[in-house]
Write a structure and sequence with these properties.
It is built from five helices and nine strands, in the order βββααβαβαββββα. By secondary structure, the chain is α/β, with parallel strands linked by helices. It has one domain: Glutaredoxin (3-Layer(aba) Sandwich), CATH 3.40.30. The strands form three sheets. The chain has a five-stranded mixed sheet with strand order 5-4-3-8-9. It has a two-stranded antiparallel ribbon with strand order 1-2. A two-stranded antiparallel sheet has the order 6-7. The relative contact order is 0.23.
C-alpha cells in the first residue's frame, strides 16, 4: 500500500497521442494523480471537469494534474476533446500503476473480474513523496475538490 510519507512509485504511461510520460518528468512540481474508473461514465466526467475548472488555481501553485485510467489513449483523447481538458490523461493499459498505487477496483458495472481504477486522488510533493491520499468508498463518490486544491497550494 502506498502511504503518506512514501516515495511515489515511478511510472511511465501513454498519453492521448501515445507518447510516454514519466512521473519523473514532473520533478520539482506538485503532482495530483487523479485515478478514475472510465471516461464517459458520469461521475468521472464530473471529476475531470472539476479538475479542469480548478486548473488555473493549481497552476498558480505549480501543481499539475495527471488523470489516470485503464482506458486506451484513443478513448482518453476523445474524452479530453469532448470536455476541453487541458491536463494530461494517461492510459494504464497493463494496470501496473493502478496496482502500484493501490487504486484498483474490480467489478465495475457488475462485470465480474474487470479491473479498472477506483476513484483515488494522490498528491505528490515537489520531492516525489506522497503527501495526501484519498480513496473513494466506491467509484460513485467524488473527492472534495476544494480541499485538494487548498492542500496542493500548501506544498
Amino acid at each position: 500500500m502506498v502511504n503518506i510519507g512514501d516515495t511515489a512509485p515511478a511510472f511511465t504511461l501513454k498519453t492521448t497521442d501515445k507518447s510516454d510520460v514519466n512521473l519523473s518528468d514532473y520533478s520539482g512540481q506538485t503532482v495530483i494523480l487523479a485515478f478514475y474508473p472510465g471516461a464517459f461514465t458520469g461521475v468521472c466526467d464530473k471529476e475531470m471537469c472539476a479538475f479542469q475548472d480548478n486548473l488555473a488555481k493549481l497552476n498558480e501553485s505549480n501543481a499539475v494534474v495527471l488523470g489516470i485510467s485503464v482506458d486506451s489513449p484513443w478513448v482518453n483523447a476523445e474524452f479530453a476533446r469532448k470536455y476541453n481538458l487541458e491536463f494530461t490523461l494517461l492510459s494504464d493499459l497493463d494496470r501496473e500503476v493502478v496496482q502500484a498505487y493501490d487504486a484498483s477496483f474490480v467489478g465495475l458495472g457488475g462485470i465480474e473480474g474487470y479491473m479498472c481504477a477506483n476513484r483515488v486522488v494522490v498528491v505528490i510533493d515537489k520531492k516525489g513523496v506522497v503527501a495526501h491520499r484519498w480513496v473513494a468508498e466506491n467509484p460513485g463518490v467524488e473527492p472534495d475538490y476544494d480541499a485538494i486544491v487548498s492542500f496542493a497550494a500548501t506544498l
